[in-house]
Amino acid sequence: MVVHQHQALRLTCAGILLANAVMIVLGVMSSVPQRIGAATMIVCFIAGQTLCALVLDHIGAFSLPQQDLTAGRLLGAALIVGGVMLVRFL
Fold first, then answer.
1. What pTM, to 2 d.p., does this model score?
2. Number of folded domains in the chain?
């Protein structure tokens, strides 16, 4: 397999971004639970991943097929955000 210079640069940038994301997640996971609780932190983490996945699907990121934002997908995301509110405030 031959890796061209622009591919190597893209892979390097992706690796740096991934390493930074891991450091942010680890930092948040070690400091936030003391303030808001473990359950709220985990629910927020899952909600954030779901919302990010919807955006990435909608734009067709990472050469994946583009997925439309349907009413069902938006309703599912709204229910997850509603779950965050229930866990946090009830």
1. 0.64
2. 2
